[in-house]
Write a structure and sequence with these properties.
There is one protein chain. The protein is of the alpha/beta class and 358 residues long. It contains 16 helices and 13 strands. The protein folds into two domains: 185 residues, Rossmann fold (3-Layer(aba) Sandwich); 152 residues, 3-Layer(aba) Sandwich (Rossmann fold). It is 47% helix and 15% strand. Helix 2 links the parallel strand 2 and strand 3. Helix 1 crosses helix 7 and helix 7 packs across helix 12. It starts with a strand and ends with a helix.
């Protein structure tokens, strides 16, 4: 069986690592994986270094497509992925998450009558202003197998009338965190490199369009980080697009007390997340990683797809409010320990077995 995997962004590289490793280690006699990288994340620290650190095979196809509007990017990806599908004729197309790469791959496969397997199906923010939400809804409608990370995701699909091919296999990100946490402890030197002491810093990330494209929201987030930095060091690895926006608004040079770096390799991020006093983020993946490591998380969004992290007390939604960010930091505490809503760490094995058995 030939499985064609399409990835394009950092979170997808991380998730693909678990599946690719499982295929090579356990099912190499039954399945061949062809990896396609759309190029959506093209910066070395956002892309190439992840393939190296995560042990993902080099992509057979690197489409080099990035930048432009959502429609233009998705259209170029759709055309290029279709050409790959016609050349490879895979039995399955495997996609992850909710990016433009995900949508383009699903559409190209569906139009060629190639079945689609969607990992991380059923997530909903119920905010249709988010491009990711539109991508999720469309992709779930045209997928044959829908691999959900939680019971909540299964219920979301059922509420939309989607029940066939749906299963809760757990979250491949949990698989990845279990596998790489020890590796990060052994190999990462980021704490020494940046002069950081465990539990004496806050880790922050910001990249979502709802924040970076809204100057008022971005100013509030920056002000919140600056306020926290007056009492504890704040580390901010910057997404390239966020850096450009901050520079354009004149905010980049005013981040007093905030240590700004380029995007960091995965093992360094894992190491930093595990030892942070708190995490401030708008990233879905970082929210979950904070939960896995039982680190208090402050999410600068109005909603989250990962409601379990909030329900169990490890995550607070604060929108883009300086006051709420600071309050959440000062009132942070532990949530419920030892609760596993994201499976048992065997999601990748379940996914590959289900595809082979279908």
């Amino acid at each position: 069986m030939k499985i064609l995997t399409v990835v394009g962004a950092r979170p997808q590289f991380i998730k693909a690592a678990a599946i690719s490793r499982t295929i090579r280690a356990t099912f190499s006699a039954k399945a061949e994986e062809v990896l396609v990288h759309t190029g959506q994340h093209f910066d070395h620290n956002m892309s190439e270094v992840f393939f190296v650190q995560l042990g993902i095979p080099a992509p057979k196809y690197d489409l080099g497509i990035s930048g432009g509007t959502h429609g233009a990017m998705t259209g170029r990806m759709l055309s290029s992925i279709e050409e790959v599908l016609l050349a490879e004729r895979p039995d399955w197309v495997l996609i992850y998450g909710d990016t433009n790469s995900t949508l383009a791959a699903a559409l190209a496969a569906a139009k060629l009558h190639i079945p689609v397997a969607h990992i991380e199906a059923g997530l909903r923010s119920f905010n249709n202003r988010m491009p990711e939400e539109i991508n999720r809804i469309v992709v779930d409608r045209i997928s044959t197998l829908l691999f959900c990370p939680t019971d909540t995701a299964v219920r979301n699909l059922a509420n939309e009338g989607i029940r066939q091919g749906v299963s809760n296999v757990g979250d491949v990100m949990f698989d990845v965190s279990l596998y790489f946490r020890q590796l990060a402890a052994q190999r990462s030197t980021i704490h020494v490199d940046l002069g950081l002491s465990p539990s004496r810093y806050v880790l922050a990330t910001c990249h979502r369009a709802e924040n970076t494209d809204d100057p008022a929201r971005l100013r509030e987030i920056v002000a919140g980080l600056q306020a926290i930095a007056r009492t504890m060091k704040v580390l901010l690895p910057l997404h390239p697009r966020t850096r450009q926006v901050l520079a354009a608004l004149g905010l980049l040079d005013s981040l007093d007390g905030v240590v700004v770096t380029d995007p960091l390799p995965f093992l360094d991020m894992i190491s930093l997340e595990k030892s942070a006093a708190a995490i401030v983020t708008d990233s879905g993946g970082v929210q979950k990683e904070a939960f896995f490591f039982q680190v208090p998380c402050i999410t600068v969004r109005d909603e989250t797809e990962w409601v379990e992290t909030v329900d169990l007390g490890w995550n607070k939604l604060v929108g883009a409010s300086q006051a709420l960010i600071v309050e959440a930091f000062h009132t942070r505490g532990s949530g419920q320990p030892d609760v596993l809503p994201y499976g048992d760490g065997t999601a990748a094995d379940k996914i590959v077995r289900a595809i082979l058995a279908h």
